[in-house]
Amino acid sequence: MDRIDRNILTYLQSDASISNNALADKVGLAPSSCLRRVRNLKTKGIIKKMIVVTDATQMGRGIKAIVTIKLADHGTKARKRWIEELENTDAVSQIYAVSGDIDVIVIMTVGSMAQFQSLSKKLYGDNENVLQFVSQFVLEEHKFDIAN
């Protein structure tokens, strides 16, 4: 990747809906060259996907929870099925296996505490491999930026 590729990524991470012509103007390329570079970044897997970021509150999911989980066994088929269940749960937006005292961190957004309690019971409380889970709720969001 060169400086132009990095500039392309910076603009796309700020606004993925930018037209190819506008992007080309911003990075100083002909539209065909810009399009070729974007396609190349996708082919290489540098651009994983183009997304729309919504306002969770306006989408009826204004409660954000960070759940830390300790597991009994890390290498079981049951753990793999549990992770797949988390991946297939709409309220779950992020899942991280981490080092240290905690094994998994889950970020989820829900519309109500009742929904959170129901999902928590299903995803954590009823799972024999989950030794402990601790939920924390976001009170203020000072920075949310998915560009890296």
- Using the coordinates above, name the CATH class of the largest domain: Alpha Beta
How much of the residues is beta strand, in percent? Answer: 15-25%
The CATH homologous superfamily of the largest domain is called: Lrp/AsnC effector binding domain/regulation of amino acid metabolism (RAM) domain
Number of strands: 4
CATH topology tier name of the largest domain: Alpha-Beta Plaits
Structural class: alpha+beta
Strand numbers in spatial order across the main sheet: 2-3-1-4
Could you list the spans in which at least 5 consecutive residues all have pLDDT below 50?
Answer: none
- Radius of gyration equals 20 Å
Q: End-to-end span in angstroms?
A: 15 Å
Portion of residues in helices? 25-40%
Choose one word for the global shape: elongated
CATH architecture of the largest domain: 2-Layer Sandwich
| Major sheet summary line | 4 strands, antiparallel
Number of domains: 2
Q: With helices defined by DSSP (H or I, 4 residues minimum), what is the helix count?
A: 5
Mean pLDDT: 94
H and E order? HHHEHEEHE
